[in-house]
Predict the structure.
Amino acid sequence: MATGVRGLRLTTRDGEVTGVRVNIADGERVVPAGAIVLATGGFDYAPDLVRDFLRGPLSRGVGAPSNTGDGLRMAMRVGAQLGNMREAWWSPVLTTPGIRSDGGRRGLLISRERALPGSIMVNRYGRRFANEAANYNAFGGAFHHLDESKLDYPNIPAYLIFDHSTVERYGVFGNPPGGEVPDWVIRAATLDELADRLDLPADALRATVDRFNTHARAGMDPDFTRGVSAYDRFPGGRMGDPDSPHATLGPVTTAPFYGARVESSALGTKGGPRTDRDGRVLDVDGDPIRGLYAAGNVMASPSGMVYGGAGGTLVIAGVWGMYAGRAAVQDQGRRAG
Ligand SMILES: Cc1cc2nc3c(=O)[nH]c(=O)nc-3n(C[C@H](O)[C@H](O)[C@H](O)COP(=O)(O)OP(=O)(O)OC[C@H]3O[C@@H](n4cnc5c(N)ncnc54)[C@H](O)[C@@H]3O)c2cc1C
């Protein structure tokens, strides 16, 4: 086994994949193989592919920066059929200072913080634009709303706004109730001051919070139905009554007020070479390309545009890894015998 080796191109003979050209310390070399399983992740760090294929903006990646679509390009060069290319595991991400050891920018998924009582998200115009507690993948759709008059994506970037009651009662960003709020979070004594510091229109932010507060006190969200689904109520419900809409709906009233910028991101893209149910990569006519298999985010995901729940991405990668490996062994055995 070799690690730290970059696959560059597939080698073929008579339409069959016979190996892979790799980049190693002292140059390039071809590794012959009876079967190749592509498992190079998505193309979230390939700006050209992101621009040309995804259904809406991906402002920043949050997965491995080495996911530059190499496997997709390898598959395209040998005539693979592509599928699900518009899709990614969309997620709102809050950028925090510093660089990770893999060279990527640090980020937080904020799935908990945006669903807690006393917390909302607003767009650049200071308006709420979605059910903040929705699952992260579905939330991507709210980022991709296009203002057709201004030809602008008004919800990118967005801002997470929360008050001190959220901090006291639940704790944020991994800290316990009443714990610290990291110093990269903008804070202010009033909503107007917070709006000023985040460069948001103060009148709009105040009106948004007033409206949200009136409804939150009554345990309802007529604008975006937050709190109707058990999913919405889960993060706050773990520390209270999970059946109450107040597990996610609470007014934003207690100073200091906090805010941070949130980007449209994704855990990874999930379009690529289409496979059969055993992970065999198909060509443009729907026939298997002999010797080529794919698993994980590099392949056209069987999940389409949706997210099935916790572990939904890793399970697909693991299951198709097993299918692809099994099919590769069986196919080789059949060819040999
Ligand atoms: C912050 C974060 C949190 C997540 N949380 C969850 C969760 O709770 N549950 C869940 O189910 N999923 C979660 N995911 C998603 C999950 O991690 C991914 O969907 C999954 O890792 C995809 O697996 P993969 O093997 O297809 O790709 P990856 O894990 O991205 O691995 C691809 C690998 O291929 C390597 N590679 C790329 N190009 C080449 C090349 N040319 N040659 C050789 N190697 C190459 C890359 O360096 C990378 O190591 C999370 C993702 C992130 C970023």
